[in-house]
Protein 1
Amino acid sequence: MTMDEEIRDILAEHAKLPVDISTLGDTDDLFRAGMTSHASVNVMLALEEQFDIEFPEAMLRKGTFESVAAIARAIGTLVNTSTGQGR
Amino acid sequence: MSQVRVGVDLVSVEDVDRSVLRFGDRYLRRVYTDHEIASCQGPPRVTAAGLAARFAAKEAAVKVLRPSGPRPDWRSIEVRRHDDGWCGLELRGRAARLAEEAGLRSIAVSLSHEGDMAGAVVVALAAEEDAKP
């Protein structure tokens, strides 16, 4: 399973979107699609669980969770930082 | 003369109840302070209603603080419950800095819940000479 597929599975379970996640493109705005702030907390916690990461306060902005592509970028940054590849 | 800022937010009590069940302590400790968790002790539905109102208060406060970059950590915005039952807001860290930068001199909160919905209103006042849009 690719990272995008894992992200989409988590969004399907936790984002409480009123539309099927498969109908949204990678850059479509999840908040405009109906994801609430509280649902984004659940998405964040599920992503941390799945990818063994922790989102720091500096990444707690709407932009981090606004789309599948934005989430993938954020995870990539955190994974690279924790493995030292981003230095 | 003063400038007024208002923020309001609504949260589903059932959603919070589900988050507590699914993520447990990790959810609680990431979002709420020790004082907030202690203030919401009771049967699960009562706890969820109290937590949902507090989450709404944090989101309403963010609308008042209007961060242009990263938003403040949820735990830096604390709902303090007074012995007589009314609540106030205490800001720390980035939330306190944002309030200071905006010239906010006074901030107040009111919480409510009914059925599956909990809500909060936050009002802040800034002296006009300090207020930044």
Protein 2
Amino acid sequence: MKPPTMSSHSPVTAYRHSRGVLIPCGVFLAIGVGWSLAVSAFKVPPLLLPGPMAVFRTIVEERELLFQAAASTLSEILLAIAIAVVTGFATAILVGISPLVRRTIFPYILATQVVPKVALAPILIAWFGIGMESRLILAFLISYFPMVINTLAGILGTSDAMLRYAQSLAASEWQILVKVRLPAAIPAILSGVKITAGVAVIGIVVGEFVATDSGLGKVIIDSSASMDTALTVAATLLIGTLGLALLGALELAERRIVYWQSGS
Amino acid sequence: MGQGARLGQALPLGLNPIREKLTDAVEGPRRQSPNDPHVVIADLSKTYELKDDSIESIRRVSFEVERGGFLSILGPSGCGKSTFLMILAGIIPASSGVVKIDSTPVIGPRRETSLVFQVPALFPWRSVLGNVLFPIEIFKGDLKRHHDKALALLDMTVLADFKDRLPEQLSGGMAQRVSLCRALITDPELLLMDEPFSALDALTRDEMTLELQHIWEKFRKTVVFVTHSIREAVFLSDRVIVFSPRPAVIGCDLRIDLPRPRKLEIQETAEFNRYCAEIRASIGVRSG
């Protein structure tokens, strides 16, 4: 097939491609310039908000501290996501296939959603100490539920037409689950993973605020205590960057996995 | 499992001339038990029980379907003809009465019966070929052995070039052809079709009608075809049964004696239109 190769050389697509890169870069620069201008125009003291150059300088100077903290935060985030995804998926399958589980256990899972889990942080520290366990548990509590709900919505939302067809072949419940419900649920499951990843970032960072023995959250707490606002802002930006990179990676993976949906 | 790969092996040819001589409604081409009809529907009723109401969908319907014949069930929307087909397929239980296929009561879906739905509902993550082979996977059949058979079916329905495509890249007519292929891959004895062409545009519909006639002539499976198009029913069928509005009872049972293979032009003949008029009269639709 020729058309794809031809079109990638055509001026129109070249323009589109460059637009896809140029516009975000432009926005990024504009925010930086706006920030810089605002800080100097309103004479904001650096203690409240340093300019972008000052923050950049801090990132370079404190790169070792920030890199270690980011590595620690990222690994805990990934671990939390893995735990939430695996357990959430398993829960959803159980709830999906067993009416008994749906009646007996699922209501309690739902009930836990009403409790603001960040409020549990002090208790978690009392139980599990200042360390990774507390943070992982907090992140898990926040990120488990979206995974359950999305997966469940996916496997229970299979189109009637597909189910009826599988039924007409006398497919077993297991075959229907593995060959129809699960593949049909993949888009929903992946959006569950994305939400889970997003809130796992929050869970770990909030955990680092409370169980302050490592990570970018600790850097934020420490630097704001010593009024090193540039470092606080730098750590905050890094957390944002980590989260974006994570979601970007998941988005890319999604496009490859859900090959049958050409949307976007 | 009875789903041996016998693509292209229809009835022994010698039987077809005999068939043409027979015009009796119950007799037909014979394969196994000469006097047994393929499907027997006896006193079949279906009532849907709702919370504080019940809807009587089918009322005491009885008839027999001859082996290798093409039977259409015609009726207004919501008359229970789809429900009836689902009962034949063993997907919906009857409220009373019995359906026997090859003298065995239907209590659930059977592998010897294939169902084609109005909406093909292909699996979007599977290629065309993967969709056609799906029933073999479910039946735990030999995929390698059925691979060539699937290709032959796709070839017959002019889909061979599309075997690796995904369903979203297919037109409505192509998708319905794929669903016909996946219904035929299991070598069914009985093909149940639930308004399979009603979602297609008129031209595609004509094309599919001819193709179905061709496939049926080739394989001579028993077909029960549900439709709300009188012309489609007359064109395709040996026999047309008209269901009344709900609760469905048989309003008319008509034998269509038009020569085969039929061409689209047959629809312009007086004979064809006489059949249509007779059916229309039995439904109670005035032409003026």
Protein 3
Amino acid sequence: MAEDAEVPGNRAPLYWGLAFVTAMFGAGFGARFAGLGGIWTMLVMLPPMLLLIPLVRSTERGGDFGGCTSPALKKYNRRGLIWAFSYVGALFFAISVNKAWQPEGPLLWLIAVLPALPIVYFVWSLHRYLVEETDEYLRMRYVGQALFGLGLLLIVATVWGFLESFKVVPHVESWMVVPVWAIGLGLAQIAQRVRGS
Amino acid sequence: MRNRLKVLRAERNWSQGDLAERLEVSRQSVNAIETGKYDPSLPLAFRIADVFGLRIEEIFLKD
């Protein structure tokens, strides 16, 4: 038979992913330790963000090599880069404007909502992926990952919410829902890789 | 559900990649179907049957 097909493992995305998470947390804690505030923290966080580019590229290369990618998935990954960098840019802009001009009224509302717009784009891109994906197995895998992320988010948010109500833990801003969901998505991806499914 | 994909591929000297290309799905999908980790939908099962020139029940078997 022609070259038969165990789907080969590819660790490069895992290493880039680890490098990204480590650099982001390292920069975040470093900035806090150095006593940096708003805009400066954002500036320090920008270089680690660039690691997203090799992460996405290595994921695509790995997908091509392992036969586990599709045009829709590639498009989704590219859209992921767009919203991630737009998010950082919008956050940077909103913090800068707020600090420099202390806007009030409708302008303050507009500035405050600005960083959320890339997340709206992200939700749209997630919807588009599920519509555009013609490979039903890849689509099923992604739905499973997304549901795992959602389940984790519901549990973490509910448990944390009650702990907060009983004043056991400090308040956490609600925009943390997306990172928590993304962590769940990542954990589900790792679990699928380990299980070989 | 069991299937005869591996045997049918072998008879035609096709790799999983070759079959994936014919079905317009990822190689991982073919691997998952072949190893019984994933049961295809009816439309995909029909496409698989068409590619092999067989009926669905000649490829997919009840446990």
